[in-house]
Amino acid sequence: MTLSVVHMDVLDAIKNRRSVRKYSAEAVPEDALMRVLEAGRIAPSANNLQPWHFVVVRDPGTRKKLTGGKYAKFLEECPVVIAGCGDTKKSPEWHVVDVTIALQNMVTQATAEGLGTCWIGSFDEKEVKDALGVPDDFSVVAMLTLGHSKEKARGERRTKAIDEITSRDRFAKG
Ligand SMILES: Cc1cc2nc3c(=O)[nH]c(=O)nc-3n(C[C@H](O)[C@H](O)[C@H](O)COP(=O)(O)O)c2cc1C
After folding, report:
1. Superfamily for 19-150?
2. Cα–chain-centroid distance for residue 70?
3. What is the 71 CA–ligand 1 centroid distance (Å)?
4. Are 98 and 51 contacting, i.e. CB atoms less than 8 angstroms apart?
5. Under DSSP, is residue 151 helix (H, G, I), strand (E, B) or coil?
6. Is-contact 103 55, C-beta < 8 A?
7. What is the sign, positive or negative, of the torsion defined by CA atoms of 162, 166, 172, 174?
8. Residue ranges of the domains in the chain?
9. Is the C-beta atom of 19 inside 6 A of ligand 1?
10. For 56, phi and psi rounded to 5 degrees?
11. Are strands 80-87 and 116-120 parallel, antiparallel or unpaired?
């Protein structure tokens, strides 16, 4: 396999991803889930501290406890939720970035597996920590939903052009 083919595969997965908020009841196969978690496990982290822990939530009763946020109601119907937790003691400065990178690796792998995902930032941290038994020295950075999409294909969303968001050698905007 040539390098360019590998690059295309990744870019396709990144391009094909859209936030999925409607899920079928179909279970997520364990092998696909393991590859999604593996993509997170091997993510880069500052000083290779890997200051993360991921709680995979399948239990419907526990999932319901995660739906307190205004934009998180659909977690009740989604077969898998992954809560990304960061070790605030181990890496006070970078745990948020590190957990975020790992979660986004999982999103990309899930897309390649044909699974839908959605980032969830709409939650009360204390509520989620209580529901999942997250210890005091960990924060809940974000959650992901994971499952088979039941959404109809959507049109493209507006995204900024490369020219709008990049400059060369020196920051130059507008
Ligand atoms: C950090 C973060 C938090 C988000 N939180 C939520 C959320 O709580 N509920 C939700 O429905 N979507 C949430 N989203 C999804 C965004 O609304 C979505 O990514 C954005 O509108 C772009 O659409 P797309 O993902 O389909 O490309 C979140 C996305 C990010 C990156």
Report:
1. NADH Oxidase (3.40.109.10)
2. 18
3. 9
4. yes
5. coil
6. no
7. positive
8. 19-150
9. yes
10. -90, 115
11. unpaired
For residue range 80-137, what is the model confidence (pLDDT) as tens digits? Answer: 999 999 999 999 999 999 999 999 999 999 999 999 999 999 999 999 999 999 999 9
Beta bridge partners of 91: none
Q: What number of CA atoms fall less than 13 Å from residue 75's CA on the CB side?
A: 29
Q: What pTM, to 2 d.p., does this model score?
A: 0.95
One-character DSSP codes across 143-168: EEEEE-B-PPP-PPPP---HHHH--S
Query: Whose CA is closest to atom 9 on ligand 1?
Result: 71
Region at 50 (left for phi over 0; alpha for psi -120 to 50; beta for the rest)? left
From atom 30 of ligand 1, which residue's Cα is the shortest distance away?
Answer: 119
**Cβ(61)–Cβ(38) under 8 Å?**
no
